[in-house]
């Protein structure tokens, strides 16, 4: 019998808000059973970048990661954010282990080589290459993996990988050993009919409805890659919920049908 595993992804606006972050980590630490946390931090990386005099460049929600920006995201995601979260979880009694995809070679990746735009040090990975046996070994050792948005190219370089994609990939790969539930937590109540009005929550969303709402411009910006990743997981049998970070332990948000 496969056990349930919960994969929670927290976005950049949550990570950047100390009070929300503390509350969501508190709720996360109380989830029973195996669990994995994935965090973004795009906002913190952009702020740090500006402070260092490096202008952030985003194309379709993805960071153009040149050599200097790679150093910034390694510092921000792998250091500042990841270690801060691990320390907080430890204080909450959750035995967190901070990881990038390079650690224990759990998520080997390759530099994106898509034609027109050169994204620089941005990594894509094959889900089949994720070392789920190693991950299961850590989880069986009563550890809670905490992944940041970094992978590696297996040739000595770290790569920047979108945290939503990483969370979806991990959930799909973990389906080999568990029944995965993937929870995307951010600063809105879920997928909304009006992205500025939390009262317009869509409680259940199927793929056809998603396509219509996208065509009508009701779903836009960062919600499009998030839902593409979310439906990719849904298609592989992962339960997916998109909800407000402060509702982590409540039956709230948008469930993918
Ligand atoms: N229909 C919608 N419902 C909710 N949010 C939406 C919608 N369309 C666009 N968005 C925007 O998508 C953003 C979430 O995407 P993103 O910033 O990439 O998330 P995260 O911080 O979790 O990585 C929200 O902040 C919101 O402004
Ligand atoms: C390639 C790429 O764009 N990577 C993202 C990784 C961080 C992330 O995904 O953070 P959020 O969840 O806060 O958006 C970036 O650098 O912004």
TrEMBL record:
Reaction catalyzed: N-acetyl-L-glutamate + ATP = N-acetyl-L-glutamyl 5-phosphate + ADP
Annotated ranges, domain Aspartate/glutamate/uridylate kinase: 5-243
Record-level Gene Ontology MF annotations: acetylglutamate kinase activity; ATP binding
GO CC terms: cytoplasm
Source taxon at top rank: Bacteria
Classification via CDD domains: AAK_NAGK-like
InterPro entries to which the protein is assigned, alphabetical: AceGlu_kinase-like_sf (IPR036393), AcgluKinase_fam (IPR004662), ArgB (IPR037528), Asp/Glu/Uridylate_kinase (IPR001048)
Methyltransferase found in the keyword field: no
Role of this protein: Catalyzes the ATP-dependent phosphorylation of N-acetyl-L-glutamate.
Sequence similarity: Belongs to the acetylglutamate kinase family. ArgB subfamily.
Name this polypeptide is given: Acetylglutamate kinase
């Amino acid at each position: 019998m496969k056990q349930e595993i919960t994969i929670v992804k927290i976005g950049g606006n949550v990570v950047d808000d100390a009070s929300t972050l503390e509350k969501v980590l508190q709720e996360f630490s109380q989830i029973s059973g195996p669990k994995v946390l994935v965090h973004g931090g795009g906002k913190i990386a952009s702020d740090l970048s500006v402070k260092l005099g490096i202008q952030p460049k985003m194309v379709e929600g993805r960071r153009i990661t040149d050599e200097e920006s790679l150093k910034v995201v390694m510092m921000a995601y792998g250091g500042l954010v990841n270690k801060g979260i691990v320390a907080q979880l430890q204080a909450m009694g959750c035995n967190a282990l901070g990881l990038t995809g390079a650690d224990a070679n759990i998520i080997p990746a390759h530099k994106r080589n898509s034609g027109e735009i050169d994204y620089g040090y941005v990594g894509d990975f094959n889900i089949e290459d994720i070392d789920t046996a190693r991950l299961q070994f850590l989880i069986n050792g009563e550890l809670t993996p905490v992944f940041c948005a970094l992978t590696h190219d297996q040739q000595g370089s770290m790569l920047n990988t979108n945290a939503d994609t990483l969370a979806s990939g991990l959930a799909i790969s973990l389906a080999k050993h568990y029944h995965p539930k993937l929870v995307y937590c951010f600063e809105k109540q879920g997928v909304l009919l009006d992205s500025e009005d939390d009262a317009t929550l869509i409680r259940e969303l199927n793929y056809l409805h998603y396509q219509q709402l996208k065509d009508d411009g009701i779903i836009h910006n960062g919600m499009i890659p998030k839902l593409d990743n979310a439906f990719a997981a849904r298609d592989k049998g992962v339960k997916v919920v998109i909800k407000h970070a402060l509702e982590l332990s409540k039956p709230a948000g948008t469930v993918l049908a």
